[in-house]
Amino acid sequence: MKKVLTIAGSDCSGGAGIQADIKTITVHGMYAMSVITALTAQNTTGVYGIFEAAPEFVGQQMDCVFSDIRPDAVKIGMVSNADIIRVIARKLREYAAENIVVDPVMVSTSGSALLSPAAQEALVEELLPMGRVITPNIPEAEALCGKKIENRRDMRRAAESIGEKTGGAVLIKGGHLEGEACDLLWDGGEPCWFIAPRIENPNTHGTGCTLSSAIACALAAGYPLGEAVKRAKAYLTKALKAGLDLGKGSGPLNHMAGV
Ligand SMILES: Nc1ncnc2c1ncn2[C@@H]1O[C@H](COP(=O)(O)OP(=O)(O)OP(=O)(O)O)[C@@H](O)[C@H]1O
Ligand SMILES: Cc1ncc(COP(=O)(O)O)c(N)n1
């Protein structure tokens, strides 16, 4: 059985973060492991509290995982602060982790900061260069390239500029733009578009977490990056289309809608 590790924050309401990742990995028939960077008190209406893990404890969790059950792929989500980022980067290097997918989580759908502003530099310098692919949404890509993104041409420019900075592939997710749900993968050379119809479903809590975990699963299974993104997007689209409607705000996806 393939093993996939998620390094992320806990969402007690189960729609995003570690919980979304574990559901995604499990539904892909893989063995899920988790290193928790922070506990959040949140639900579909907002994030009400954050309790960060001590950086040494994040390192200890990584030692326990890597010294015993080596992951075939690693997904990284909410990392909270610069000290946690530095420990994660050091441990990933120490264990020569493979197939790393970094979702540079900065702000939740409900508008709360999930990364301290001071940590953005550490994220860019220490963690993003370790990713086989990084998966910013539009606001995150804007923060990383320092330019507004309003259309597909802007997405392409931003992907190239971010990729040149980090040295790896970039998938910019277009969920926050209008019209079709278009994501752009840049891996050097010609970019590749992944286009799906926009689903009229306001319940999009955890779409980014789910997509990046599904990409990690496909990389663990040995698919090349382009095929991994295609499969992950198909899974995400199915989970959104299933139309689960839970909670008072932007609700979770149905992770069990099928792979
Ligand atoms: N209404 C929609 N219909 C179809 N696909 C969507 C829709 N909204 C988002 N997506 C897709 O979901 C994936 C995640 O994109 P999005 O831009 O929402 O990321 P995100 O903001 O990081 O997600 P999150 O809600 O977890 O923060 C992308 O593949 C995007 O195209
Ligand atoms: C622990 C954690 N990680 C990530 C997200 C982002 O997901 P979303 O933007 O859908 O709220 C979140 N809300 N909580």
Automatic annotation (TrEMBL):
SUPFAM superfamilies: Ribokinase-like. Transmembrane segments: none annotated. Pathway: Cofactor biosynthesis; thiamine diphosphate biosynthesis; 4-amino-2-methyl-5-diphosphomethylpyrimidine from 5-amino-1-(5-phospho-D-ribosyl)imidazole: step 3/3; Cofactor biosynthesis; thiamine diphosphate biosynthesis; 4-amino-2-methyl-5-diphosphomethylpyrimidine from 5-amino-1-(5-phospho-D-ribosyl)imidazole: step 2/3. Its EC number is 2.7.1.49, 2.7.4.7. GO terms for molecular function: ATP binding; hydroxymethylpyrimidine kinase activity; phosphomethylpyrimidine kinase activity. Pfam families: Phos_pyr_kin. One of its GO terms (cellular component) is cytosol. It is an enzyme of class 2 (transferase). Residues 11-254 form the Pyridoxamine kinase/Phosphomethylpyrimidine kinase domain. InterPro entries: HMP/HMP-P_kinase_dom, PM/HMP-P_kinase-1, Ribokinase-like. GO terms for biological process: thiamine biosynthetic process. The keyword Cell wall biogenesis/degradation does not apply. It catalyses: 4-amino-2-methyl-5-(phosphooxymethyl)pyrimidine + ATP = 4-amino-2-methyl-5-(diphosphooxymethyl)pyrimidine + ADP; 4-amino-5-hydroxymethyl-2-methylpyrimidine + ATP = 4-amino-2-methyl-5-(phosphooxymethyl)pyrimidine + ADP + H(+). Keywords: ATP-binding, Kinase, Nucleotide-binding, Thiamine biosynthesis, Transferase. Belongs to the ThiD family. This is Hydroxymethylpyrimidine/phosphomethylpyrimidine kinase. It comes from Guopingia tenuis.
